């Protein structure tokens, strides 16, 4: 059963608690959209200083907008384009301290200043990406990347 909890530990402890909450939300649900929706809501509640969090799902050679929290977003992103498309092509996390310095950045929300994108991979197959934007430059660090990738890896097993 899912319970809302307060995050009072270290950054690492809080992330581990977040991942535990994610498992409680998704482990008994088979619907992909429900799980992605709850995951985006959970991250939106947990993370500070963000203005968009959500998913793009792979369909052929494009990433298509999935469940998210934030302003309306770009609907389709070609694999290899922008931060999301690059993370999908390379199948690795990409942390961008200043989106204005990323070649080919796709600006869906003009307020975004930094971004982190993490691949969702299950059974060796790319499912999509988790995309998080912040209005602050250099919002995401190595700890965020490590634990958000763990979050994405757990979630991928329930949305394949």
Automatic annotation (TrEMBL):
A Gene Ontology molecular function term for this protein is: L-methionine-(R)-S-oxide reductase activity
Q: Which Pfam family is one of those matched by this entry?
A: GAF
Task: Specify the GAF domain's residue ranges.
Answer: 31-160
Question: Which SUPFAM superfamilies does this chain map to?
Answer: GAF domain-like (SSF55781)
Known Gene3D superfamilies for this protein?
3.30.450.40
User: Which ranges form a coiled coil?
Assistant: 12-39
Annotated keywords: Coiled coil
Q: Does the keyword Coiled coil apply?
A: yes
The terms describing its cellular component in GO are: cytosol
Q: Can you tell which superkingdom this protein's organism belongs to?
A: Bacteria
Supply the InterPro entries for this chain. Answer: FRMsr_CS (IPR000614), GAF (IPR003018), GAF-like_dom_sf (IPR029016), Phosphatase_reg/MetRdx (IPR051330)
* Record flagged with keyword Coiled coil: yes
Family that this chain belongs to:
Belongs to the free Met sulfoxide reductase family.
Recorded protein name is GAF domain-containing protein
Q: Which organism is it from?
A: Caldibacillus debilis GB1
């Amino acid at each position: 059963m899912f319970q809302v909890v307060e995050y009072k530990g270290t950054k690492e402890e809080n992330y581990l608690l977040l991942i535990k909450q994610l498992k409680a939300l998704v482990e008994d649900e088979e619907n992909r959209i429900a799980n992605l929706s709850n995951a985006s809501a959970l991250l939106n509640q947990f993370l500070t200083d963000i203005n968009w969090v959500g998913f793009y799902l792979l369909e052929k050679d494009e990433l298509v907008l999935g469940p998210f929290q934030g302003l309306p977003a770009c609907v389709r992103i070609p694999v290899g384009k922008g931060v999301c498309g690059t993370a999908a092509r390379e199948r690795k996390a990409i942390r961008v301290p200043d989106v204005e310095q990323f070649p080919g950045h796709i600006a869906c929300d003009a307020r975004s200043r930094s971004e982190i994108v993490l691949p969702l991979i299950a059974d060796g197959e790319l499912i999509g990406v988790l995309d998080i934007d912040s209005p602050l430059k250099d919002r995401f660090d190595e700890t965020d990347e490590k634990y958000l990738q763990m979050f994405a890896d757990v979630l991928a097993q329930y949305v394949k």
